[in-house]
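Field reference: sequence -> structure
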Amino acid sequence: MAEKATAKPAKESPKESEQVSSVHIFPEWCKGCGICVAFCPKQVLEMGDDQKAHVAHPEKCIRCYLCARRCPDFAITVADEEGNIVREEGDHQ
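Structure field:
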């Protein structure tokens, strides 16, 4: 019976992280140049062991769009508060 009473928070964690993260990196498009990491003013992005950019601290993102604007391979998208994909501030698709 104790098994029925225990909740599984792991199912809710991905939803919470998706809501927090406004930055998405397409790993198959990323060539690992590190430009996005260098330009991020809040250190949201980091280079991973696979030599590709990863969203390390999504909660720090201020939606300045520097990463998306600087990425030469268009591998990064930034979503606004409503979840709309934005390449630059003021640009809504």
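Note: DSSP finds four helices and five strands in the chain.
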